[in-house]
Amino acid sequence: MDNKPALEYHVSAERLDAHGSLAICKSAKIPLDTDIAGRIDAFNPAELLLAAIAACMIKGIERMTPMLKFRLRGVDVRLTGRRQDSPPKMIGIEYELWVETDEPDRRLDLLHHNVRNFGTIFNTVSAACPLEGTIHRGVPPWRLPQLQEDTPHVQT
Questions:
Q1: How many domains is the chain partitioned into structurally?
Q2: Do 139 and 67 belong together in one domain?
Q3: pTM of the model
Q4: pLDDT tens-digit profile of 112-123?
Q5: Per-position b or e across 97-130, b if 16+ CB within 10 A of its CB
Q6: Is the Cβ–Cβ distance between 97 and 133 less than 8 Å?
Q7: What are the residues whose beta carbons fall under 8 Å from the beta carbon of 136, sequence distance 6 or more?
């Protein structure tokens, strides 16, 4: 058993009005969708949970790449959560992890193994809800149109 004191994290949140709230941590602020009708300009609680998992996965990769001497150019994650109404809870979360790298498949699989086994938020959520996904090499399909728009076109 580890005798180190547990790390603590602190976030506060305040209701601004019937349409939204604000979460505050350190010098960061995140608008929250707490409107019963929903808002398109803020994360609702389920979306925040998915964002926390994505941040955990990417932060884990940032921590692991120097140790593994793993070279990459980019990382993208897309998550989908499924919620049931009664009782209300998340019943499954799926993810697609995309890594732009030239590393061999076995090293990509090692990176995925480490993401799945050494992330605090990932482990916490996966203990409470099925959390499954895949790792892919390259640029995710949802970013390809953006990349084409950002690439200058040369007329011949």
A1: 2
A2: yes
A3: 0.89
A4: 999 999 999 999
A5: bbbbbebeeeebeebbebbbeebebbeebbeeee
A6: yes
A7: 96, 97, 98, 99
